[in-house]
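step 3/5: co-fold with FE2/S2 (inorganic) cluster
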Amino acid sequence: MTEYDVTLEWPDGRTETVAVDPRETVLEVALRQGIRLPYDCREGTCITCVGRVLAAGEDDTPDAEEAVDAADVFDYRRQPRALTERERADGYVLLCIAVPRDDCRVAVGPMVRAEVGDSPWS
Ligand code: FES
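step 4/5: write tokens
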């Protein structure tokens, strides 16, 4: 089964790379490996686990001017109800229900959470 490398990046420069296959979500793999990520509902409704795609596939250099559409990189186990379509197009992704379709780099941490509004479901 194909695995994709998802590199999680914190604002302080720390990174962790997890190999995720289609049977698991990014959050599930990270937690199993002892990587601390924020989460709450694990159902795509509370927005606590949000990250932002920085780059995907061969494109290893993030371009601050150009957002990566999260739909190009991740499938969801269920509807990501906590995010608007615009937020998804701007690269925001709910890691609790997200399954990667490509190697990618994802910003995580409270700064990313602060960039998006509150979930209408929480
Ligand atoms: S943990 Fe609630 S949306 Fe992911």
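step 5/5: annotate
The beta strands are 4-9, 15-20, 50-56, 74-76, 92-94, 98-100, 104-107.
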